[in-house]
C-alpha cells in the first residue's frame, strides 16, 4: 500500500542531507558504472579475439619453414629450410584418417597484375581447392579453383575484392584476361575475406600452374591443415597437439633438423592459441567481475554506514514514535525504504550512464585498437546486477533499522 507520509519523510530526510545523500548515491552509482564498463570491455576483448580467429578456419594448423639455428649431423646452422611437394604428399598419406582440409601454397615470385591500362602489385598464391575453406574465403561471383584446374595446369585466377575495385572498377571481371608477370590468366571468380582489405588484396591460381610457369619446381612455401572434428573442444585440442607433435618430428627428420631446434620449422596451431586466449579472457572477465563487485560492496557499506548515522540522528524521533505505539516493523520499514530508494536510484543511474557510454563510444573503439571490438554488455545481466544491488542495499539498511527498532523508548527520549 502506498504511504504518502512515509515518502514525504524520506524526501524530507534527503533534502536535509543533500550532500551526504549525493555522496552515498555516487559511491553506489560508480560501483555499477565501473562494473558494467569493465564487463563491456571484457566482452569487447572477447569479440576482438573471436574476430581475429574468424579470418581463417577455426582449427587451422599453419606450417612454414625457417632457418636452422643448430649444427646437426655435420650440417652447419643457418640453413634455410625449403618445403617440398614430397613433404606435403607424405603427410597426406601418413595422416589420412585425421586430416580434413589441406592445401600446400606456392608463393609466386611476382604479384604484378595488369588489366588494360590498370596495374597493381598484390599478394599472390598458388593453392589447392581447399584453400577457400582454410582461409574462410567467400565467393562473390564465379567459382574457386578446382581439381580439374590443377590436373590440367589451367591459367585461371581468383581475385580479391580490392583487386577487383583497383583494376576493373565497375566492370565485371569474370571471364576477362589479366596478365600476371607477363602471362595471361582468365579471371574465374572474385571473393571477400573477413580479414578485411589486406586479405582481399591478393589472388590465387592453381599451385601446379604456379610451380610450372614460374619455375617453382617442387617447392612450396607453406602448408595449411585442418583436422577432423572431435566431440568436444578439449578433445580437439588434445588431438591437435598430438598431430602437431607428430608433424614437427616428421619434418625435422625429413630435413635433418636437430630435435631441439625451434627456429627451423614453425607450426602455428590456432586451436591451441584459441584455448590460451579464451582462458586468458576468462581470467580477465573474472578479474573485472571482482573489481566491479568489490566496488559495489564498498558502496553498499557506505549505505549501511549512512543508515547508522541516520538512526543515530533520529534516535529521539524513533523513541517518540515507539512511545506513541509504533511497532518495531514500522520503524524497520521506515529505515529500509530510504536505504532501498537511495540504492535503487543510484544503481539505475549508474547503469543507464554506463550503457549510454558503451552505446555512444563502443563502435568507435575499433578505430583505436583492433583488440577490442563492439564492447557491450548483456542487458539482462546488467539489470539483474542492479536488482541484486538493491537487495544488498536492503540488507545494508536492515541492520541499522533493526538496531533502531530495538531502542527502548525511555533511552531514546533521553538522547541529546
TrEMBL record:
Protein name: ABC transporter permease protein
GO CC annotations on file: plasma membrane
Keywords for the protein's UniProt record, in alphabetical order: Cell membrane, Membrane, Transmembrane, Transmembrane helix
Residue ranges of every copy of the MacB-like periplasmic core domain listed in the record: 21-238
Keyword Cell membrane: yes
Domain of life: Bacteria
Domain ABC3 transporter permease C-terminal: 291-408
Family (UniProt): Belongs to the ABC-4 integral membrane protein family.
Organism: Christiangramia flava JLT2011
